[in-house]
């Protein structure tokens, strides 16, 4: 897969991905799985956000999409 296509698919800046594949920046390893393409939240942050939304809905305060 090309660097350009991978950058678009995973929502990573192309220059960052290119620098890492060329060895100009260190590759950081994490035990946390990679986020879904287009997602800006980590998996843990997304789970916390979903729980918050559910709790707020249970007490009668729902968020609109714009909020």
UniProtKB/TrEMBL annotation:
For this chain, one GO molecular function annotation is:
DNA binding
Report the residue ranges that make up the HTH psq-type domain in this protein: 1-20
Under which name does UniProt file this protein? HTH psq-type domain-containing protein
Q: What is the lineage of its organism?
A: Eukaryota, Metazoa, Spiralia, Lophotrochozoa, Mollusca
């Amino acid at each position: 897969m090309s660097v350009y296509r991978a950058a678009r698919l995973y929502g990573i800046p192309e220059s960052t991905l290119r620098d890492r594949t060329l060895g100009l920046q260190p590759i950081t390893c994490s035990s946390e799985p990679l986020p879904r393409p287009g997602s800006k939240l980590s998996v843990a942050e997304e789970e916390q956000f979903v729980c918050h939304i559910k709790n707020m809905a249970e007490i009668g305060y729902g968020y609109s999409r714009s909020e």
